[in-house]
Design goal:
Blueprint (H helix, E strand, L loop, with lengths): L1 H5 L9 H82 L6 H90 L4 H12 L52 E2 L2 E2 L4
Helix pairs in contact: 2-3
């Protein structure tokens, strides 16, 4: 609508119709500016939440990696502990099977192996218990950070829903107000258009742009060698045939179209 006011419809005129149409256009422009500002605020809000979420995710990634690493170490310690237990059991069975079948020297070797396996079981058991305790501490830290992250994400989601709900509410209110304002201004334009008169606009254009009452005389033939032949040819009028302007043509338009008009010296004709 702003382009309508800058074209030949209103480029060289100042009138109530143009001012009303321009007012509607300005309302549309202001609404567009308001919507751009709201879109900017939404983008800033989104970036702010994205940064907060990224910080929480980094903390969660760190504790998760720590928990996974400690779990792997604990499983390795458990595997080593179980293997040492099996080695001790085999050493005990070997001592029991060969109690009366081997010489004292061989039997001593079996007892040394059994004692060594028992020491290895005790050491692996302590290491396994230590890793389990460390894993439990890491798990508690991970669980605590997980709870904090859930609380942060929940708060962010509540804030996001509230922000966009309010923004959408404001947006539809702005659109509703724009519709009311535009309808009021368009009604003023319609009232101005009801005063349009084709005859007055044509008469205004003719009176403003007319060059005289008599059209130019026709160009006569002039003989260079016989000036006496330069008189008007017989049977032809010496001047133009003046005729009065006929009735205005009926404009082609659809049913119920508004009239074409002149409003406060504002012509709809091109100038």
């Amino acid at each position: 609508m702003a382009k309508i006011c800058s074209t030949s419809l209103g480029r060289s005129h100042v009138g109530s119709l143009r001012s009303k149409v321009d007012s509607v256009a300005q309302c549309h422009i202001r609404l567009a500016q308001t919507l751009r500002e709201e879109a900017r605020k939404m983008e800033e809000f989104r970036e702010k939440q994205k940064l907060q979420r990224k910080k929480t995710e980094l903390v969660m990634d760190a504790v998760h990696k720590q928990k996974s690493l400690q779990f792997k170490k604990t499983m390795e310690a458990k595997k080593n502990y179980e293997q040492k237990c099996r080695d001790k059991d085999e050493a005990e069975q070997a001592v029991n099977r060969t109690a009366n079948l081997v010489n004292p020297k061989q039997q001593e070797k079996l007892f040394v192996k059994l004692a060594t396996s028992k020491t290895a079981v005790e050491d692996s058991d302590k290491a396994y218990m230590l890793h389990v305790n460390m894993l439990d501490k890491v798990r508690e830290e991970w669980q605590s950070e997980h709870i904090k992250a859930c609380e942060v994400f929940e708060a962010q989601e509540c804030e996001r829903i509230n922000f966009f709900r309010n923004a959408l509410w404001l947006h539809v209110n702005q659109l509703s107000q724009q519709c009311v304002t535009s309808d009021d201004m368009c009604e003023q334009v319609r009232k101005s258009l009801e005063l349009c008169s084709i005859e007055k606009d044509i008469e205004f254009f003719v009176n403003q742009r007319k060059t005289g009452q008599t059209p130019p005389a026709p160009i006569k033939y002039e003989n260079f060698y016989c000036p006496q032949k330069n008189a008007a040819s017989p049977g032809k009028a010496s001047g133009p045939n003046l005729a009065r302007r006929g009735p205005l043509p009926i404009p082609k338009s659809l049913p119920d179209d508004p009239d074409y008009s002149l409003i406060d010296n504002y012509s709809l004709l091109y100038q």
